[in-house]
């Protein structure tokens, strides 16, 4: 059993004039994502994108991409005909499968608009070569309860409650928006990843956490995380690892 805290400032960082990418796992220039993965989680980027900017059309294959917006909006377009704005509280997943082209841009329509801040997470599908697929759903109402909400899952026990499905039966992404003093319990799992996206909190066995801090768990769980101020947390529950 291990509990490993990764501080925000210790993440990899890639910066250009329009993008500030803070990477929990090294992604830029890394062609062996499995070597740095934790459980099934191989990419966990927190990106700040300037007004009118974004990622031009590019290709993905055999990966589940989950996008979670913290501030602003992301305009998604892909070669399967899906298009729309992703905003805070909207859970979104793209299954690249046999191959898909897509672009992601700051949803602001002008260069004088607002920045966007977004967390993007990648896990492998448990079956390669599936038909590309896209799904989104607004879960803001469920998050308003202060409870841990399964926002994306392929696990049978979470599917009735999960907002969107993912093509991996061993993983669930949970999210919570907490008021000061509210608590959530980290699920027990062979692999866990706790990311404090907003605010400050304390977690049993990990201590104080600030925005951008993460906790990697192995064969552990059951700890309570308590918000010290308004906070938002993303927790991966994983019952397999990326091979």
Beta content comes to over 45%
Radius of gyration, in Å, reads 17 Å
Give the number of DSSP strands: 22
The secondary-structure class comes to: mainly beta
- Helix amount: under 10%
CATH architecture: Sandwich
CATH homologous superfamily placement: Jelly Rolls
- In total, the number of domains comes to 1
Principal-axis shape: globular
Helices and strands, in order, run as EEEEEEEEEEEEHEEEEEEEEEE
Output the CATH class name: Mainly Beta
Number of H- or I-type helical stretches = 1
Contiguous uncertain segments of 5+ residues? none
Mean pLDDT: 92
Enter the CATH topology name. Answer: Jelly Rolls
Structure notes:
With 243 residues, the chain is an all-beta fold. It has one domain (2-238): Jelly Rolls (Sandwich). 2% of the residues lie in helices and 52% in strands. A seven-stranded mixed sheet has the order 1-20-17-22-15-13-14, with no helix packed on it.
Compact description:
The chain has 243 residues and is mainly beta.
Q: What key attributes describe this structure?
A:
single chain; 243 residues; mainly beta; Jelly Rolls; 7-stranded mixed beta sheet; 7-stranded antiparallel beta sheet; 1 helix; globular
Q: What is this structure's SSE topology?
A:
Blueprint: E1 2-6, E2 12-15, E3 19-23, E4 43-49, E5 54-60, E6 64-71, E7 74-78, E8 83-86, E9 90-95, E10 100-106, E11 116-123, E12 133-138, H1 140-143, E13 149-153, E14 164-165, E15 171-178, E16 183-185, E17 189-198, E18 200-203, E19 207-210, E20 214-220, E21 224-227, E22 231-238
Parallel strand pairs: 13-14
Antiparallel strand pairs: 1-20, 2-3, 3-4, 4-11, 5-10, 6-9, 6-11, 7-8, 7-10, 9-12, 13-15, 15-22, 16-21, 17-20, 17-22, 18-19, 18-21
């Amino acid at each position: 059993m291990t509990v490993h805290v990764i501080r925000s400032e210790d993440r990899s960082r890639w910066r250009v004039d329009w993008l500030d990418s803070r990477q929990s796992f090294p992604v830029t220039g890394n062609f062996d994502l499995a070597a740095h993965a934790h459980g099934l989680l191989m990419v966990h980027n927190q990106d700040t994108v300037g007004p009118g900017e974004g990622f031009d059309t590019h290709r993905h294959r055999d990966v589940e991409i989950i996008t979670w917006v913290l501030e602003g909006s992301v305009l998604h377009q892909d070669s399967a005909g899906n298009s729309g704005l992703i905003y805070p509280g909207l859970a979104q997943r793209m299954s690249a499968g046999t191959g898909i082209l897509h672009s992601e841009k700051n949803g602001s329509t002008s260069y004088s608009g607002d920045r966007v801040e977004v967390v993007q997470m990648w896990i492998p599908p448990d079956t390669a070569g599936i038909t590309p697929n896209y799904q989104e759903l607004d879960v803001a109402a469920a998050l308003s309860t202060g409870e841990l909400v399964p926002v994306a899952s392929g696990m049978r026990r979470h599917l009735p409650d999960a907002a969107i499905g993912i093509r991996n039966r061993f993983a669930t992404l949970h999210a919570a928006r907490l008021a000061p003093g509210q608590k959530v319990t980290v699920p027990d799992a062979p692999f866990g990843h706790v990311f404090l996206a907003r605010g400050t909190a304390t977690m049993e066995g990990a201590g104080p956490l600030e925005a951008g801090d993460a906790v990697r768990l192995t064969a552990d769980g059951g700890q309570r995380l308590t918000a010290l101020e308004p906070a938002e947390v993303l927790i991966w529950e994983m019952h397999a690892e990326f091979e």
